[in-house]
């Protein structure tokens, strides 16, 4: 096992094969659907979640891991031979997960060396950061080097997404009710992103999904004229649409190594079915 163990939470939406390959430890959040509670990605899959979501009327809710959940993960990593832990988590603007991890760090102080990072983002935009850090750890890089890799990806990546309806973001307090109503009435598709404070905001408002999609790839080309180092498409129940977005990445950048990943139940509970997103990291100068 790598000297530095990278730990994240389930909202990073990292494909299970990558989790296994890179030895990443994942602490699950909970999603509450109707009268049932599930561990994100453990006893409910993304496919099951979106299928169930269409069958119920009430909005799902979510809850963060407890500090003790993180303490358990930190101690397990040390028992397995790691000497330092890099813990990277969902934006603190969305959840108390980062605060739980920070409190857990204080609970094991003097026993385990833990560095906690607020990713200030969500879904595989976190996953891209975590995977890069885990690859560095697997190469035997030091904690400082792994943190530097994580911060470079955090600062250089771009993430954009579209939702089918603004209702989920509005009811979760992520976007104002007036914006949700106007968007629905006028077929306005806001191109959404996450700012440096880790909050959702509208980059531009475009009439119609096709135009909004085309504009996303134009924005990426404007911001990353030298090309891509990494890119991924995140989807909910719309893999066919995700394939089309991947094709656009290939056409726009000549970039073939596109990662696909499901937007998991916890993030999906706040964005709804039909959500699709892209995260890209530019070629480093």
UniProtKB/TrEMBL annotation:
GO terms for molecular function: lipid binding. Transmembrane segments: none annotated. The keyword Iron-sulfur does not apply. The keyword Metal-binding does not apply. InterPro entries: DegV (IPR003797), DegV_C (IPR043168), DegV_domain_contain (IPR050270). Keywords: Lipid-binding. It comes from the Bacteria. PROSITE patterns: DEGV. This is EDD domain protein, DegV family. It comes from Melghirimyces algeriensis.
């Amino acid at each position: 096992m790598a000297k530095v163990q990278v730990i994240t939470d389930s909202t990073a939406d990292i494909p299970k094969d990558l989790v296994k390959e890179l030895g990443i430890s994942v602490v699950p959040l909970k999603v509450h659907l109707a009268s049932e509670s599930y561990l994100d990605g453990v006893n409910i899959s993304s496919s099951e979640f979106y299928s169930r979501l269409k069958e119920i009327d009430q909005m799902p809710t979510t809850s963060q891991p407890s500090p003790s959940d993180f303490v358990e993960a930190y101690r397990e990593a040390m028992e397995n031979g790691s000497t330092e832990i890099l813990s990277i988590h969902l934006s603190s603007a969305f959840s108390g997960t980062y605060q739980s991890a920070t409190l857990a760090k204080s609970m094991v102080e003097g026993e385990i060396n833990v560095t906690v990072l607020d990713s200030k983002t969500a879904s595989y935009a976190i996953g891209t950061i975590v995977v890069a850090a885990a690859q560095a750890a697997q190469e035997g890089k030091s904690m400082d080097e792994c943190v530097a890799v994580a911060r470079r990806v955090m600062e250089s990546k771009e993430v954009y997404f579209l939702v089918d309806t603004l209702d989920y973001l509005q009811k979760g307090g992520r976007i104002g009710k007036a914006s949700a109503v106007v968007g629905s009435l006028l077929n306005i598709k806001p191109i959404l992103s996450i700012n440096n404070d880790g909050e959702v905001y509208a980059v531009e408002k475009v009439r119609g999904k096709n135009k909004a999609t085309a504009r996303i790839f134009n924005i990426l080309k404007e911001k990353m004229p030298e090309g891509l180092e990494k890119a991924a498409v995140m989807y909910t129940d719309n893999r066919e649409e995700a394939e089309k977005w991947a094709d656009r990445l290939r056409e726009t950048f000549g970039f073939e190594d596109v990662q696909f990943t499901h937007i998991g139940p916890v993030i999906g509970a706040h964005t709804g079915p039909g959500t699709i997103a892209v995260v890209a990291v530019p070629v480093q100068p």
